[in-house]
């Protein structure tokens, strides 16, 4: 099996606990390692300069790849052009976007799709339903993902109630301005002891934000992120139409942090209303729900214990088994 990464990131399994890798890279690493445990020989191609074997996975650069090898399956991240020069009996595109037809053409996907005839693998029901036939005419499938096992194996005190802290730790501005508007105008005026921590560098950090208990956070190690989440009362994320599988949301859920969201994009697939969080329909409902979770300890603990019961039910062992059953 060969995995073909589409980013310019140089990474291996040694980088899981760093800020270098996020969603797609993390998934490639964890699925590759699980397939090695199942007896498969796995190569993962990215921008790495020096080949290295980590936990049985061979990491290498395409420039030094033996192009005479024939693989049983080639799995490429988003871009069908990555299959050029790769001999494989079966080819799969691991898609990380909705990719409407205009973008499909603009990204130069039509010719390599016709040439390589890949199946398109989607990550969630939302993406599967919106991926059109014209951009997946050789077939499509859906196999969900999960997080690094560290998140669902981390010890949790189910009776611990964190300080009144909300968190937005996503790396891009996905309706963050909308969230800030709700916080400044509808949450902070009713509860000026609550705090919202947001990713730094996404918006201008004005006095209005500072005076509304909105604080900046920075990215640390995976262990530091887990500690941050364990000390967070509520994960606040509006959602976004381009959201296919936001890793940060699943990391929060696996550490038993309730999520409050509009459910825009794929997040509605993963928030069980009233059990792992709340899917709201108005700014007023969003604000009131956050305030309730901040101030009602019993409500917070109810959701926390619900999520605790379901931690790790979807894991990389079961995901690898589904891949093997369907495609390997």
- Beta-strand fraction estimate: 15-25%
Helix content: 25-40%
Q: Based on helices, strands and strand pairing, what is the structural class?
A: alpha/beta
Uncertain stretches of 5 or more adjacent residues? none
Which H/E pattern describes the elements?
Answer: EHEEEEEHHEHEHEHEHEHEHEEHHH
The gross shape turns out to be globular
- Figure out the total of helices: 12
Plain-language structure description:
With 328 residues, the chain is of the alpha/beta class. The protein is built from twelve helices and 14 strands. Strands 3-4-2-1-5-6-7-8 form an eight-stranded mixed sheet. A six-stranded parallel sheet has the order 11-10-9-12-13-14, sandwiched between helices. β7 (119-122), α4 (125-130) and β8 (140-142) form a beta-alpha-beta unit. α1 crosses α12 (316-327) and α6 crosses α10 (283-295). The protein is globular, with a radius of gyration of 21 Å. The relative contact order is 0.13. The mean pLDDT is 94.
């Amino acid at each position: 099996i060969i995995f073909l990464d589409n980013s310019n990131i140089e990474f291996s399994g040694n980088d899981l606990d760093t800020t270098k890798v996020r969603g797609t890279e993390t998934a490639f690493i964890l699925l590759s390692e699980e397939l090695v445990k199942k007896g498969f020989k796995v190569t993962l191609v990215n921008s790495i300069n020096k080949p290295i074997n980590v936990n049985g996975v061979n990491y290498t650069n395409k420039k030094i790849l033996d192009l005479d090898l024939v693989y049983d399956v080639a799995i490429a991240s988003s871009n069908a052009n990555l299959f050029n020069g790769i001999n494989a009996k079966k080819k799969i595109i691991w898609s990380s976007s909705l990719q409407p037809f205009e973008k499909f053409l603009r990204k130069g996907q039509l010719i390599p799709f016709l040439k390589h005839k890949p199946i398109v693998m989607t990550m969630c029901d939302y993406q599967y339903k919106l991926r059109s036939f014209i951009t997946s005419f050789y077939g499509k499938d859906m196999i969900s993902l999960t997080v690094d096992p560290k998140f669902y194996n981390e010890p949790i005190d189910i009776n611990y109630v964190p300080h009144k802290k909300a968190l937005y730790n996503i790396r891009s501005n996905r309706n963050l301005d909308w969230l800030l508007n709700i916080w400044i105008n509808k949450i902070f005026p009713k509860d000026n002891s609550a705090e919202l921590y947001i990713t730094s560098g996404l918006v201008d950090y004005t006095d209005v934000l500072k005076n509304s208990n909105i604080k900046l956070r920075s990215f640390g190690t995976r262990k530091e992120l887990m500690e941050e989440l364990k000390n967070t009362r509520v994960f606040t994320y509006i959602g976004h139409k381009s959201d296919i599988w936001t890793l940060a949301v699943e990391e929060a859920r696996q550490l038993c942090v309730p999520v409050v969201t509009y459910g825009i994009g794929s997040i509605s697939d993963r928030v069980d209303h009233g059990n792992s969080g709340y899917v709201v329909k108005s700014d007023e409902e969003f604000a009131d729900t956050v305030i309730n979770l901040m101030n009602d300890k019993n409500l917070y603990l109810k959701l926390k214990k619900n999520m605790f019961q379901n931690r790790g039910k979807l894991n990389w062992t079961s995901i690898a088994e589904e891949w093997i059953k369907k495609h390997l």
